[in-house]
Specification:
Elements: E1 12-17, E2 20-24, H1 26-37, H2 48-58, E3 65-67, H3 68-77, H4 85-93, E4 100-102, H5 103-124, E5 131-132, H6 134-143, H7 150-160, E6 168-169, H8 170-177, H9 185-195, H10 212-216, H11 219-251, H12 260-271, H13 280-285, H14 287-305, H15 314-344, H16 353-364, H17 373-401, H18 411-440
Antiparallel strand pairs: 1-2, 3-4, 5-6
Helix pairs in contact: 2-5, 3-4, 5-8, 6-7, 11-12, 11-14, 14-15, 15-17, 17-18
Length: 445
């Protein structure tokens, strides 16, 4: 296994969640990597000099030790932006528990890590030719239930391929993962999932998941804040249609038919153009607590439903996600009632959400804040179940009839499947949603 220096010719992708990944210009990457690693970028497992050169580069204050801050700066310079990587490396190699790695600890960690990487490399090298190609990555992941398209497998190879052969030998594999703490296949798959867009086919209706490193850093709450912000923008944009839906659910009947244009006209005549956004404030306000509660509940339900140390199955993840959604809805349901009342209010009826809550409490009592709770909870079951079942059926049908050399239907097909499945779920649960809204609005004069 002799090492050889090569010039990196592909663009490098690191970190991110789903489609939120970072693109690093290949020329900039090459400059940073060369300036940091110099001759040490040609790894040689038997060469102390390679380790010494790398250690000296990382030890920026020349105190004979590399701490978390120095290692983190070095990893960032190489384009390794995964949160918690530096801390995990130091924690794994720090034998005397002083929070730093001296040269002996650094060398021992790298050698042990290389041995684990070698075993993983061999498990992926199915034909034992000393190289990994796209089909071997596809085959290995397929055996673990993760179906990857040829295009995505090639993208994974490109991030590691140095000589442009679209095959990865041991030296390329070792250079790519040597200063990344993932060492077994499960952790490397998780890394690939974050580095590329992988359709794992089981994330529908399930809250966002985070690794242990991300949970211990500030990544998880940044993702939740980003999701809540996006939700606030989208709900504000669709608020007029949402208010019209609630308005028609409550006021439309056989004798009082309300159409799309007529409904908008009535609301604008009664309260002006801004009245189309009534109730949007609390609708946006409830996103943050609902998202946070759903995330925390989901983590707890996963622990209850899965065995210690074992990967949770897809159907159990779906169950955990559904129960987490029900838990979040239970916690924030009074805000749902307030949203309905504020959406349907007449001009001057309430001074704001607090005035609305105070008047409901005074006239109707605490129980009023849970009107329609039962049909709302029951509606989760047909919606979530039908949504998931139709989505998987449509996607698998497309793959059976039209897919040739790919396990990924593509964005447009998945979007179409999601739209149809969501519509079917809405149709099945809509009667319960109608009952819920009518019950929430019952006390209106």
């Amino acid at each position: 296994m002799s090492s050889s220096c090569r010039t990196r010719r592909t663009s490098f992708k690191k970190d991110g969640r789903s489609d939120r990944f970072l693109h690093i210009d290949s020329a900039m990457y090459q400059t940073l990597r060369t300036s940091l690693l110099s001759s040490a970028r040609c790894w040689d497992a038997n060469s102390q000099q390679s380790y010494q050169t790398l250690f000296d580069r990382l030890d920026t204050n020349n105190d004979g030790k590399v701490d978390v801050a120095e290692l983190r700066a070095g990893l960032k310079a190489m384009g390794i932006f995964r949160h918690g990587a530096a801390q995990k490396i130091v924690s794994s190699g720090d034998q005397n528990k002083d929070g730093c790695l001296d040269f002996n600890e650094f060398t021992k960690y790298l050698k042990e890590h290389e041995m684990k990487l070698w075993l993983t490399f061999k498990s992926l090298d199915r034909n034992n030719d000393g190289r990994i190609d796209a089909s071997e990555i596809q085959q290995s992941l397929a055996e673990l239930g993760i179906h990857l398209s040829k295009e995505h497998a090639q993208k994974i190879l490109q991030s590691m391929d140095i000589d442009g052969t679209m095959m990865v030998d041991w030296n390329e594999w070792r250079e790519h993962f040597l200063l990344y703490p993932a060492h077994n296949l499960e952790e490397i798959i998780r890394y690939w999932k974050h580095s590329s867009v992988l359709d794992i086919g089981d994330s529908l209706a399930i809250p966002d998941e985070f690794t242990e490193e991300e949970k211990s850093s500030d990544v998880w709450w940044k993702q939740l804040v980003a999701g809540a912000s996006a939700g606030a923008v989208s709900r504000t944009g669709t608020a007029p249609l949402d208010r019209l839906k609630v308005f028609m659910q409550v006021h439309s009947s056989k004798t009082n038919r309300i159409g799309l244009i007529g409904g908008f006209r009535q609301m604008i005549v009664e309260g002006g153009l801004t009245s189309l956004w009534r109730g949007n404030g609390i609708n946006v306000l409830k996103i943050a607590p609902e998202t946070a509660i759903k995330f925390m509940a989901y983590e707890q339900y996963k622990k209850l439903l899965s065995s210690e140390g074992k990967k949770i199955e897809t159907h159990k993840r779906f169950m955990a996600g559904s129960m987490a959604g029900a838990t979040a809805q239970t916690a924030i349901y009074p805000m749902e009632v307030l949203k309905t009342r504020l959406t349907l209010r007449k001009t001057g009826q309430y001074a704001g959400m607090f005035d609305c809550a105070k008047k409901i409490l005074k006239k109707e009592g605490v129980i009023a804040f849970y009107k329609g709770y039962i049909p709302n909870l029951l509606g989760i079951i047909p919606y979530a179940g039908i949504d998931l079942a139709v989505y998987e059926t449509l996607k698998n049908a497309w793959l059976s009839y039209y897919a040739k050399d790919t396990a990924n239907p593509g964005v447009l097909v998945l979007l179409g499947c999601g739209t149809i499945s969501s519509t079917c779920g809405q149709l099945a649960s809509y009667p319960l949603a109608l009952v819920r809204t009518r019950m929430q609005a019952q006390a209106l004069p």
